[in-house]
Amino acid sequence: MELAAGLAGFSQSANGVHAVLDTGERVAARYLVGCDGGRSTVRKALGVRFEGESGERAMLLGDVEVDGLEPDAWYQWTVRRRGFQALCPFRHERSWQLQAVPFGDFGAEGGLPEPSLPYFRRIVDDLAGGHGIRLTKASWLSTYRVNVRMADRFKVGRVLLAGDAAHVHPPAGGLGMNTGIQDAYNLGWKLAMVCSGVRESLLDSYQEERLPVASWTLGVSAEGLRRVAERFVNGGSTDIADGAPPDGQQLELGYPASSLSVDGDAGNGPRAGDRAPDAPCVDSSGTPRRLFDALRGSHFTLLGFGESCAGPLQDAGTVHRGLIKPVSVGAPGSGADLVDVEGHARTAYGVTGDTLVLVRPDGYLALRAPGGSRTAVRDYLDRVGVSRSA
Ligand SMILES: Cc1cc2nc3c(=O)[nH]c(=O)nc-3n(C[C@H](O)[C@H](O)[C@H](O)COP(=O)(O)OP(=O)(O)OC[C@H]3O[C@@H](n4cnc5c(N)ncnc54)[C@H](O)[C@@H]3O)c2cc1C
Question: Using the 8-state DSSP alphabet, how is residue 250 labeled?
């Protein structure tokens, strides 16, 4: 890792990427991931379109110093029809972050005045006046422009985009950073596997799976902002949390339509592409162990519910050693790796008969298959290109 060095440009060929840093240094790599924010140099250099719309400047942002407040809480003021303001102290520093949406100041042609300390002071007086609060200093001040835009492709050759470089949207619901982290989580294991020898086509599933999630995020956050703004202006609820969309935690999002999701049984629990559920179990010594503990790591996990899973679990530990971790799940006295004492795991996975569940490194179901199926896992790996055949 090289801190304080920017990417100035790059070129790519069939075999790799050659990047040039603004220090003059050259870096050769197999892949390049542009995580360089909404103004992404990487995205622009690729010529990828950033489709959508940009609004007027709509929010004031800045790091400021404040007199008259104890730095023990995040303070928020909502004043009907006039606006919203928040001051959040940074731990162990004198600075606070200021955020404000002063509706009364939006110009006839939209937008806000240029940021300046006198202007920010007036906003604080207007929205939080009468409490002896005074801005004394600012290290930076800015106005935030609402953008609702996303890249039309997340991958061009050996170069990929993630986070704000791939999608930007209103902060309503607090989804931006979380969506970017999930991009990285989806891409990370695929890049690692491709670099260790599996077929490069695995990387195509990154855009296939994450582009629809970005599109969903743009839609719900734009709608959340519209809802909050309308209520503020029209005198309805002033609860900023009203901008949160249904499933704001994004736990229900998944990849059921992905080419990596294969349903091979008729169980009634989560399907391939859904997020793998957790369950409280114990290990063979009786020590409490969560099912999520077994999933932790960069490997696939094969969960085997029932005795007929013994063969496929054995293959996972031998033929697919290092790629798949086999974990048997069974009733007390079954000798399973995870003892499902109360039956929570069977219930969470909707297991009615012997069942194999292959879980991806990022915690989503890859495959469901009948327990005795000796070829299901191998066929799956061949089909999605995860067997080390390159
Ligand atoms: C007011 C506001 C409130 C928000 N609240 C939330 C919230 O509650 N929850 C949430 O999940 N999200 C929230 N977000 C969104 C969140 O801040 C962003 O989605 C997130 O920071 C994006 O992370 P990123 O790493 O993709 O991009 P960035 O945070 O923009 O990071 C990109 C980095 O790349 C660097 N860079 C740029 N160009 C180059 C180059 N050429 N070479 C090298 N480095 C480069 C930049 O210096 C920067 O460090 C909020 C956003 C705003 C504006």
Answer: -
